[in-house]
From TrEMBL:
<feature type="domain" description="Peptidase M20 dimerisation">
    <location>
        <begin position="207"/>
        <end position="323"/>
    </location>
</feature>
<keyword id="KW-0479">Metal-binding</keyword>
<dbReference type="Pfam" id="PF01546">
    <property type="entry name" value="Peptidase_M20"/>
</dbReference>
<dbReference type="InterPro" id="IPR002933">
    <property type="entry name" value="Peptidase_M20"/>
</dbReference>
<dbReference type="GO" id="GO:0016787">
    <property type="term" value="F:hydrolase activity"/>
</dbReference>
<dbReference type="InterPro" id="IPR050072">
    <property type="entry name" value="Peptidase_M20A"/>
</dbReference>
<protein>
    <submittedName>
        <fullName>M20/M25/M40 family metallo-hydrolase</fullName>
    </submittedName>
</protein>
<feature type="signal peptide">
    <location>
        <begin position="1"/>
        <end position="17"/>
    </location>
</feature>
<dbReference type="InterPro" id="IPR011650">
    <property type="entry name" value="Peptidase_M20_dimer"/>
</dbReference>
<dbReference type="Pfam" id="PF07687">
    <property type="entry name" value="M20_dimer"/>
</dbReference>
<dbReference type="InterPro" id="IPR036264">
    <property type="entry name" value="Bact_exopeptidase_dim_dom"/>
</dbReference>
<keyword id="KW-0378">Hydrolase</keyword>
<dbReference type="GO" id="GO:0046872">
    <property type="term" value="F:metal ion binding"/>
</dbReference>
<keyword id="KW-0732">Signal</keyword>
Amino acid sequence: MKRLLFPLLFVGLSASAQSLSKPETRVIATIQNQLPETFQFLEKVVNINSGTLNKEGVRTVGKLMADEFEKLGFKTEWVSLPDSLNRAGHLVATRQGKKGKKLFLIGHLDTVFEKSLPMEPFTRINDSTATGQGVNDMKGGDVLVIAALKALHAQKLLDDTSITVYFTGDEESSGGAESRTDFIERARQCDLALAFESAQGLQKVTTGRRGSSSWTLTVKARTGHSSRIFNELGYGAIYEAARILTEFRRTLGQEEYLTFNPGLIVGGSEVYYDNQTARAETVGKTNIIAGSALVKGDLRFLTEAQKEKARARMREIVDKSLPLTKAAISFNDGIPGMEPTPANDGLRQQVDKISRDMGLGPVVAVDPSQRGAGDVSFIAQYMPCLDGLGASGKGAHSIEESLNTKEYPLLIQRAALLIYRLTR
């Protein structure tokens, strides 16, 4: 494995030092000095598989991070979940004070890479890129939080602050609403939330992101000899499923921020589906009219109102059955949407000011259609929220996932200054 030294860059400071306070310049210098150990720790946690269902791996990564928080004066605890959820649990680190805003910082310990997949270890490709499982989504973001807090602690700037750090263990495949009960309760005791999912470079942050839910369409029809289709036996289940999906696309396909993807479709004489494995089987012949069809998909939306309006329209379409067919659709909630509110944009403006003060230029909001669902959305209705503050890179959720190692130090610096200014 080729190893390269990461440059220690003081980008922007010489041009805009007058815009930063003395404590802030000391924080940036501390972050730069700590970069070697920051990258060493990142490599260590990336090289531990923590796929959502690898509960031991998730807990191991959580323990390593808990040790780091405890060195910074945080009290840590592990939030266990019921065995029925088959999830590892969550790491919480807290400190209580009276100064400034009460912050809720969000990350997650798990990755999409389960233990059964080939291991892609942390590898330094060149002076600007490192690769590895979860290196930007989101172990890079978790380590960024620790590095920022570590620098503030070194300068005694965490004294008398109130910060809750909540790293979930099942963001990539949630154990359901029960898994987020404690998360929501603790967040509501704070004033605002900062989430450290992957950054889209230095110039963008996330003030809004779409929510996700799922839907299941089932169709039953008369079956019999194929020569009698369209006549006394009606249209069959597959034609009815095709009609419904076409109408979904035709009537709702152009609405901004709304998508509805049919990810699985099966049809035939009989249909079988296993929820545990997400596998489907069907039996049918070309000379038999299909008696059953099943479609499973997701629905993504920006607001709850948009979600409910789309669901109502989808139900109307489903109810207009072709002759001798009967369809039904059901919906399951997943992660709510995070509406881009003025309060969220107020946080973006503070990041924009810090970025300009650092000499890095303006920061704008990402188009919500470019972000998937995330943990921050569970609490967006209760407080101002900002996301996309973590590590930047490419290829998340793939074997080509990478970290931009030149931007990473600057993102740590920006996060540290944001936490500092919010807690003054």
